[in-house]
Amino acid sequence: MNNRILPSLALLIAIGIFFAYVNPTWTGSIATARAAIAVDDASLVTARHYVTEQNELAAERDAIDPKDLSALTAFLPDSVNNVGLILDLNTLAARTGFSITAIDVTGNTDKKTSVSSTPSGSPNELVGTVDLALSAQGTFSSLKSFLAGIERSGRLLDVQDMVVRDSETGVYTYQMRIRLYWLR
User: Fold this and answer.
1) 141 to each of 91, 93, 147, 148, how far by Cα in Å?
2) Are residues 50 and 136 in the same domain?
């Protein structure tokens, strides 16, 4: 009888240890740790992919001629730089015989020109705009030269509106709204 009690008692103790300690540990803290490890592994794969893509983009950017990159930066700068733009417009006006009498920097509420979509799907504004209200005087030929200078400018600008006031002397008064673009 002793031969049967000892193995049966060992079996009952083993079953008790399994249900009291092994099974809760295996399904509880070990399962949680495995899930956390799986999430961390997925994050590492994503991070490696991000680093690879970042290195590829940096290599492509470095392959661009610095002269072309500076022209692109001038075309669509990463800040508004109102003062520099106003000085450039004044210089252009002085060269063309156009006289700027007032410049007012205003905001822009038109959002449809700059909405894009990021890879995650959330809308993101990539290009910002600022409007300049400009009052000036000059002849029609000086206006044509001024607008041609804006067209050849290295900066992305649009003439949105223009009002011309009649004059008997041939020197007209102009009011225009110029929109400038910048990269956010």
Assistant:
1) 17, 12, 10, 10
2) no
Q: Which tokens sit at 118?
A: 């990021």
Residues 131 and 55: their CA atoms lie apart, in Å, by 37
Q: What is the pTM of this model?
A: 0.56
CB atoms within 10 A of CB 177: 17
Q: Does 109 reside within a domain?
A: yes
Highest mean pLDDT among 17-21, 122-126, 156-160: 156-160
Query: Is residue 70 helix, strand or coil?
Result: helix
The CATH number of the domain holding residue 161 is: 3.30.70.60
Counting the structural domains of the chain, the total is 2
Contact 97, 145 (CB under 8 A): yes
Q: How confident is the model at residue 108 (pLDDT cuts 50, 70, 90)?
A: low
Angstrom distances, CA of residue 60 to CA of 34, 64, 71, 101, 127: 39, 7, 17, 45, 22
* Helix boundaries (H) for the chain: 2-17, 23-27, 29-63, 66-75, 82-96, 140-151
Q: Would residue 47 count as lying in a domain?
A: yes
